Amino acid sequence: MDNMTFVLFGATGDLAKRKIYPALYNLYREGRMPEKISVVGLGRREYTDSKLQSVIKEALESFSRREVEPSGLEEFLEKFRYCIFDATKPESYDKLHQFIKDRESELDIPDNRLFYLSVAPTLIKTITEGLHESGISSNAGWKRLMVEKPFGSDLVTARDLNKKLKEVFTEDEIFRIDHYLGKPMVQKLESLVHANPMLKALLDHDQISNVQITASETVGVGTRAAYYDQAGAIRDMVQNHLLQLVMMTALYNPDKMSTSEIEAEKRGIMESLKPITKENMEENVVRGQYAAGQIEGQAVPAYLEEAGVAEDSNNDTFFAARLEIDNENWRGIPFYIRTGKRMKKKSTRIVVEFKCDGDEEALKDDGIEPNLLIIEINPNESMTLKINIKNQSEEKFEPEYITFSNVSATQPEAYELLLHDAMQGNETFFAHWKEVELSWKWVQPLLDEFEKDGLPLYKYPAGSDGPEEAHHLLKEDGHQWWYV
Ligand code: BG6
């Protein structure tokens, strides 16, 4: 891997502490970092290098998946320097430029530069412009930009942001993070079919009844009301994570694909996703907001009672929808998606339900249930086949589950995989502009209608599986959510 400078905007922030420093540390421990790397942390606080290094050490002790070992720790921390920086001041960029160059010559490394923007969305354009105007991004070596979500807040703002970034960076140089694409199980989906012809036989269009994608959480809005009350589940989870999961699930790749083929395939899936319009929205979409309830025996308040939430907020904390991908592989097979805060259980999973053969009533009498392929992404990683086995004594069938589970402490975290890929310039598991644009395009009619309160907002008790209406969505088609 090339030697480089890693410039971290937002070095004193929460994401840096929880995810970025632990990810860098684990990469370092595994020898998956460049031989020489200069990490420049930026923030407005008046930190010194040693203050930043002690903050990093604490962050590792709290959040690293691997225990922090004294051996090598000093060498790791020594890679970090701190530069006081105000993104709105041009002189800050000149100072930063000199700072980066000095470290490059001190370490004798080429001017390859990776910029990571872990900052408020409002600063992304400002920083990109600053990098350009100061000449920091006019280096001779390679340059790359990693940006966190949200990428815009609707189709217009996303396009506008992208236009700005493209004035300074090419598409190949922009790494839009969707941490769901960094989850190990999501990354494995891409190769599952071509490595397992058995699955290719299983995942036959004529055999699949429906696909269900769930990302449920037990946490509430927490301390993020200022952002979340504007964003809602639709912007926070659906436009990015859930639609990326839809794309990754629907990727049909009997042969190994290159990054650009995956990108083209994903784009094709988004282009084939039938639009939800004002006219068909109510029959295909359920929007909800949590009321007070109990989670794991603890009483929790309603969304409207959470600190920072407007008392008459019509924001969604739950979203479910029926989707159809109108292409050869998936035409006629419903994709049900749902996500919500304060639900019964934390679970990110994909369930493929297979068709049953025979008369429905007779199957029921025999105890035969649909076969399922369950891919659990979070909190545990596993794959399960649900099959029917005859119970000899009762002459009835019972469900049995064949599970492959991959729970291991050595499992890398999403940010490790994503940082490593960006350092290597591998874009496979980042959100490409076309996907992002098509996702916003798909979501936009929903945003418009939500804005006008054009769709009912159903309440659901905290600790439940969401509003009843989300169950009706499937019942109407003769289906049910599996593993609620
Ligand atoms: C983030 C959202 O992108 O994803 C959060 O902003 C959400 O609201 C989180 O809680 C869920 O991620 P994970 O990895 O815990 O499923």
TrEMBL record:
<keyword id="KW-0119">Carbohydrate metabolism</keyword>
<keyword id="KW-0560">Oxidoreductase</keyword>
<comment type="pathway">
    <text>Carbohydrate degradation; pentose phosphate pathway; D-ribulose 5-phosphate from D-glucose 6-phosphate (oxidative stage): step 1/3.</text>
</comment>
<dbReference type="GO" id="GO:0005829">
    <property type="term" value="C:cytosol"/>
</dbReference>
<feature type="binding site">
    <location>
        <position position="217"/>
    </location>
    <ligand>
        <name>substrate</name>
    </ligand>
</feature>
<feature type="binding site">
    <location>
        <position position="346"/>
    </location>
    <ligand>
        <name>substrate</name>
    </ligand>
</feature>
<dbReference type="Pfam" id="PF02781">
    <property type="entry name" value="G6PD_C"/>
</dbReference>
<comment type="function">
    <text>Catalyzes the oxidation of glucose 6-phosphate to 6-phosphogluconolactone.</text>
</comment>
<keyword id="KW-0313">Glucose metabolism</keyword>
<dbReference type="GO" id="GO:0009051">
    <property type="term" value="P:pentose-phosphate shunt, oxidative branch"/>
</dbReference>
<feature type="binding site">
    <location>
        <position position="341"/>
    </location>
    <ligand>
        <name>substrate</name>
    </ligand>
</feature>
<dbReference type="InterPro" id="IPR022674">
    <property type="entry name" value="G6P_DH_NAD-bd"/>
</dbReference>
<dbReference type="InterPro" id="IPR036291">
    <property type="entry name" value="NAD(P)-bd_dom_sf"/>
</dbReference>
<feature type="active site" description="Proton acceptor">
    <location>
        <position position="241"/>
    </location>
</feature>
<feature type="domain" description="Glucose-6-phosphate dehydrogenase C-terminal">
    <location>
        <begin position="194"/>
        <end position="482"/>
    </location>
</feature>
<dbReference type="GO" id="GO:0006006">
    <property type="term" value="P:glucose metabolic process"/>
</dbReference>
<dbReference type="GO" id="GO:0050661">
    <property type="term" value="F:NADP binding"/>
</dbReference>
<dbReference type="GO" id="GO:0004345">
    <property type="term" value="F:glucose-6-phosphate dehydrogenase activity"/>
</dbReference>
<feature type="binding site">
    <location>
        <position position="236"/>
    </location>
    <ligand>
        <name>substrate</name>
    </ligand>
</feature>
<dbReference type="Pfam" id="PF00479">
    <property type="entry name" value="G6PD_N"/>
</dbReference>
<comment type="similarity">
    <text>Belongs to the glucose-6-phosphate dehydrogenase family.</text>
</comment>
<feature type="binding site">
    <location>
        <begin position="10"/>
        <end position="17"/>
    </location>
    <ligand>
        <name>NADP(+)</name>
    </ligand>
</feature>
<feature type="binding site">
    <location>
        <position position="179"/>
    </location>
    <ligand>
        <name>substrate</name>
    </ligand>
</feature>
<protein>
    <recommendedName>
        <fullName>Glucose-6-phosphate 1-dehydrogenase</fullName>
        <ecNumber>1.1.1.49</ecNumber>
    </recommendedName>
</protein>
<dbReference type="InterPro" id="IPR022675">
    <property type="entry name" value="G6P_DH_C"/>
</dbReference>
<feature type="domain" description="Glucose-6-phosphate dehydrogenase NAD-binding">
    <location>
        <begin position="7"/>
        <end position="187"/>
    </location>
</feature>
<feature type="binding site">
    <location>
        <position position="44"/>
    </location>
    <ligand>
        <name>NADP(+)</name>
    </ligand>
</feature>
<keyword id="KW-0521">NADP</keyword>
<feature type="binding site">
    <location>
        <position position="183"/>
    </location>
    <ligand>
        <name>substrate</name>
    </ligand>
</feature>
<feature type="binding site">
    <location>
        <position position="149"/>
    </location>
    <ligand>
        <name>NADP(+)</name>
    </ligand>
</feature>
<dbReference type="InterPro" id="IPR001282">
    <property type="entry name" value="G6P_DH"/>
</dbReference>
